[in-house]
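Regression test case RT-17, inverse folding.

Input:
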């Protein structure tokens, strides 16, 4: 991934990131530098936190317009990258998988019910979630919940759509 541009974020954009991560994940992100990076050959929107690719902007799901008119209003949501989740482990919106799921999740597969050993009950369908493995507590992927957290464990079915995972281009990116 080739860097196209890199610039420091304004204080209001930094505040939005810090507030979103604290509210959604219980993560206190205290840093001296926040830089947004644009790539020539990728659609990733990444924020370097003190030089590390810890934050990713993920396209929000479309929501109905407040006037009920059906016009979709979309915005990008800040969320931790896999590196960010391992450096600043989230306390909320976590889905845990067993050791049998590690190789599949690490290869970018969506998360299936049989591999799940735990999920936060506060997860609502459409939420961004961090996927970790039960043996060592390492984060393997970031995804979007396809069902509520209370409905994730079970016999069959896809429950989290993978967005970013260990070994993808973003994970391999370094400054």
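Golden output:
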């Amino acid at each position: 991934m080739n860097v196209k541009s890199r610039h420091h974020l304004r204080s209001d954009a930094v505040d939005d990131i810090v507030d979103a991560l604290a509210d959604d994940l219980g993560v206190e992100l205290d840093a001296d530098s926040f830089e947004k990076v644009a790539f020539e050959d990728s659609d990733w929107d990444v924020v370097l936190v003190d030089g590390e690719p810890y934050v990713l902007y993920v396209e929000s799901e479309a929501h109905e317009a407040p006037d009920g008119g059906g016009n979709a209003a979309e915005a990008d949501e800040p969320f931790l990258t896999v590196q960010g989740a391992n450096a600043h482990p989230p306390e909320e919106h976590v889905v845990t998988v067993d050791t049998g799921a590690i190789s599949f999740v690490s290869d970018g597969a969506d998360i299936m019910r049989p591999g799940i050993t735990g999920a936060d009950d506060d997860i609502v369908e459409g939420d961004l979630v961090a996927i970790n493995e039960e043996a060592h507590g390492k984060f393997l992927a970031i995804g979007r919940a396809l069902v509520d957290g209370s409905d994730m464990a079970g016999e069959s079915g896809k429950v989290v759509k993978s967005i970013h995972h260990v070994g993808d281009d973003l994970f391999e990116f370094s400054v």
